[in-house]
Amino acid sequence: MIETVIHGILLGGLYSLFALGLSLMFGVMRLTNIAHGDQIVISGFMGIAIAAAVNINPFLLILLLVPCALVSGYAFQYFVLNRTIGKDPLPSLVITFGLSIIAQNLLQEIFSANPRALDTGGLNTMGLNLGGDTVVGVLPLIILVCAIACTFGLQWMFAHTALGRSFRAVSDEKDIAELMGLNSARVYSMATAIAFSLVALAGLFQSMRTTVSPTDGPNLLLFAFESVIIGGMGSFWGTFLGAMTLGVAQQVGFHFDPGWGIWFGHLVFILILAFRPSGLFPKTKG
């Protein structure tokens, strides 16, 4: 069971990367991106296609895809989603839902429906012996360290930088923030740019650790959404710990029966919604 919990924590590291971008966009704009999971899949397939074309090291793809995601996220928010932000959340939901459908169909047309994986040169099968019979994968450890670094970086940015204060200002009182000189459209666009960068990172790691297929997006969105809700809105560390909780719950389910893993995660999500709607780790200061 100890090994099961360890593997659950490692899986939670991947889920936290799925969830951080979603948490950022919702926290700043109160916007739920329905296409979030599909964008993770797109990033994975882009990494696979580029690696196959130019035979590049998978980790060097981060230096290529993350800046591209930063630019595309800024442009998408500035020219599309900013026109839908208001008191009614329906327009942004409709647009991102439509984008999700388009993305899934385009990926199937281009790559077919077959699952694919990014070749890591054997890194995804390397293990580290922790003593006794407990062995953990090297790649999941790298993903967990990256997730911790991203979570710390986001929380620090919100608490200690001018950009973070801008995010908090437009989130709390948009009209007052604009009277003080902030351009909310640009602030929202920066938030989405950072969220898309996290999505690109998550997609690359997903394709390294396992396979991706064009229809995986809704499932990945669900895992990200559950992580955010379990952790509690308003805290990136809460999102991180929520992802850990979901990962451990799924691994415990897999421990008892291969068909129970995902169901155990959903069960924990429902129980937390029923008994602690604000999440396990609600909004904290700093």
Report on the architecture of this protein.
It is a single chain. The protein has 286 residues and is mainly α. The chain has a single domain (2-119, 135-275), classed as ABC transporter involved in vitamin B12 uptake, BtuC (Orthogonal Bundle), CATH 1.10.3470. 72% of the residues lie in helices and 3% in strands. It is built from eleven helices and two strands, in the order H-H-H-H-E-E-H-H-H-H-H-H-H. Strands 1-2 form a two-stranded antiparallel ribbon. The longest helix has 28 residues, at 2-29. The radius of gyration is 19 Å and the shape is globular. The chain starts with a helix and ends in an 11-residue tail after the last helix. The relative contact order is 0.21. The model has no long low-confidence stretch (mean pLDDT 89). This is Branched-chain amino acid ABC transporter permease. It is found in: Cell inner membrane.
